[in-house]
Design goal:
Helix content is 72%, strand content 4%. With 223 residues, the protein is mainly alpha-helical. The protein has a two-stranded antiparallel ribbon. A hairpin with a 3-residue loop joins strand 1 (56-59) and strand 2 (63-66). Residues 1-69 form the HTH gntR-type domain.
Length: 223
């Protein structure tokens, strides 16, 4: 095992075991290196790597801290990695989204507040019947993000947020090339919202599946 990898594993072990809790400040570099049996250089590299994936927070002049370890913070790295996908793997991202998002939408149907339902309706009204592709895609992202947030599961919300990169580009492409894409998307959004208002989890799940699958089907036929 490379010395930097060993250092990462040892710091990880301290966090997993509870020796370092969220928000804790790490011991001074010289003390921690001696405690873990590491060189200061390998420890420094490990801290740099763990800060990149939001495990540690290096504060100049103050020290290094364990972050909150909140799922949304930790999964930010996912969206960065997802942006490096190849075009031939975008369908795999859609397949994952088709598994997760309908489940999140069904969960939201049982938890969403009336105020949020009204806000979603107002958002759809603001788009109008013939929005630009860019406005539609931005609205689509926000529409689904707000619904998933109402599922009450922060991990699920963060995962789906991280998967939005390639699927966003695919939706833009679809909007520019498929004649009825805008009207179909608006109709499907209204159907999802109606199911949420009815507190019908299975209808919400079904419409979310239809919505994602229609983009996936179109994309599959064009690649």
């Amino acid at each position: 095992m490379a010395v930097t990898d060993e250092a990462i594993e040892k710091i990880k072990g301290m966090i997993v075991s509870g020796a370092l809790a969220p928000g804790d400040r790490l011991p001074k570099e010289s003390e921690l290196a001696a405690e873990l049996g590491l060189s200061r250089n390998s420890l420094r590299e490990a801290v740099r790597a763990l800060s990149l994936i939001r495990i540690l927070d290096v504060r100049q002049g103050d020290g290094t801290y364990v972050t909150s370890l909140d799922p949304q913070l930790l999964l930010e790295a996912l969206s960065f990695v997802v942006d490096f996908h190849r075009d031939d793997t975008v369908l795999e991202f859609f397949a994952v989204r088709r598994i997760l998002e309908p489940a999140a939408t069904a969960m939201a149907a049982l938890r969403i507040e009336e105020e949020e339902l009204d806000a979603l309706g107002a958002q759809l009204d603001a788009l109008g019947p013939e929005p630009s592709v860019e406005a539609l895609v931005a609205g689509d992202l926000e529409f689904h993000r707000r619904i998933v947030r109402c599922s009450g599961n922060t991990v699920l919300c963060s995962l789906l947020d991280g998967l939005s990169g390639p699927t966003t580009r695919a939706r833009v492409w679809r909007g520019l090339t498929q004649e009825d894409a805008v009207s179909r998307t608006l109709h499907e959004h209204r159907a999802i919202l109606a199911a949420l208002r009815d507190r019908d989890a299975e209808a919400a799940r079904s419409w979310a599946t239809v919505h994602i699958a229609s983009v996936e089907h179109w994309l599959r036929s064009t690649l």
